[in-house]
Design a protein that fits this description.
With 338 residues, this protein is mostly beta strands. The protein has a single domain, classed as monomeric porin ompg (Porin), CATH 2.40.160.40. 0% of the residues lie in helices and 58% in strands. It contains no helices and 22 strands. The strands form five sheets. Strands 3-4-5-9-10-12-13-15-16-20-21-22 form a twelve-stranded antiparallel beta barrel. It has a three-stranded antiparallel sheet with strand order 2-7-6, with no helix packed on it. A two-stranded antiparallel sheet has the order 1-11. Strand 18 and strand 19 form a beta hairpin. The protein is globular and about 65 Å long. The two termini are 35 Å apart. The N terminus is likely disordered.
């Protein structure tokens, strides 16, 4: 989860990469889809958008993130689309981030943290639903490096998903996915004109998942995942009387794609009556729109993002919706040189 002046998924939240609700909570009614599936990862798809490759300016900021994923469709490895009971996965996250003037390899150093509460979870074709929110896994990004040049911005980082939510294989009161995930990321935002009004952004993230805890005799480990997400859009800068910073409006198309690069591992490819397909790696694509605004008088960014999924295989296919409010507590002025 990263953080930017004009909010973007993780960046305006702490992973708004991050910031998540595929680690959502399993509590309540179990529904079974009559097909095989794959284990899900911790990365929340679509948490990065138009400014995916840009680090926020030196600052201290907080964020409130609302995420909703709605689906009633499961797509098999062979492309068959199965209709399932409609389900909404929801997450509310509270985050904080800092970007400093300290330099590492010529980049500004930053870090972020996201604590989340989630309801509902999908793990393969095993769906659990619950109406209320519960404390789920934590996302921390202790290292974020950002560079800015005349025509492009660059960002790189290391993040960790911590299995703080309750998890037991097949449990009906789980609150997380029960695994550690180490995630490395790198991306860039390319500006096509001197005023930096038109841009294209891409962020590449690679997640390495540990074995799940509390699985008994069934040793379970989700495969590693490659995620690419970003967007293309236009930025407007509007001077505001009485304040030094302009209003910044950003709008455009956003996208994501995710591919499982290594196979899931299970001693027994099942959780209860739910079967898992260990051979056919899942993938999915998404395309949508984003609009965000930085309001200088309240020193806050507001972001809205919607993404519809397509081309799914061995997983659910649905729609993601994000709303992020990111107030800036303080902008950090560069240190004066003597």
């Amino acid at each position: 989860m990263k953080h930017q002046l004009v909010g973007t998924g993780r960046q305006a939240s702490v992973r708004h990469r991050n910031y998540t609700a595929y680690w959502l909570i399993v509590v309540g009614l179990l529904l079974f889809l009559p097909t095989n599936a794959q284990l899900k990862g911790t990365h929340v798809l679509g948490d990065m958008g138009l400014s995916a490759g840009t680090q926020a300016p030196p600052s201290i900021a907080s964020a409130v993130v609302f995420y909703n994923y709605h689906t009633s469709k499961f797509v098999t490895g062979g492309g068959s689309k199965l209709t399932a009971t409609s389900i909404n996965l929801s997450l509310v996250g509270l985050g904080g981030s800092i970007v400093t003037n300290a330099k590492i390899l010529g980049a500004n150093y930053g870090a972020s943290l996201l604590v989340a509460f989630a309801s509902n979870k999908i793990e393969g074709n095993l769906i659990s639903t619950k109406s209320s929110l519960a404390f789920t896994d934590i996302y921390a990004q202790p290292i974020q490096l950002g560079w800015k040049t005349k025509h492009a911005d660059f960002i790189a980082g290391y993040g960790l998903y911590i299995p703080t939510g309750k998890y037991e294989l097949g449990g009906d009161d789980n609150a997380g996915l029960g695994m550690w995930t180490n995630e490395i990321s790198a991306g860039s935002t390319v500006h096509f004109d001197p005023k930096k009004e038109w841009s294209f952004a891409a962020m590449f993230s690679y997640a390495l998942n540990s074995k799940k805890k509390n699985t008994g005799d069934n040793k379970v480990q989700a495969g590693n995942l490659l995620t690419i997400e970003g967007g293309a859009g236009k930025t407007w800068y509007k001077p505001v009387k009485g304040v030094p910073l302009p209003m910044i409006i950003n709008a455009g198309l956003v996208y994501y794609m995710q591919f499982k690069t290594s196979s899931d591992k299970m001693t027994f490819p099942a959780i209860g009556n739910s079967q898992f397909d260990l051979a056919n790696k899942d993938h999915v694509y998404g395309l949508g729109a984003e609009a965000n605004i930085f309001i200088p008088k309240i020193r806050s960014s507001i972001l809205v993002r919607w993404i519809g999924e397509m081309g799914a295989s061995n997983r659910t296919q649905g729609n993601s919706f994000f709303i992020t409010l990111a107030p800036y507590t303080k902008f950090l002025a560069p240190k004066k040189t003597k």
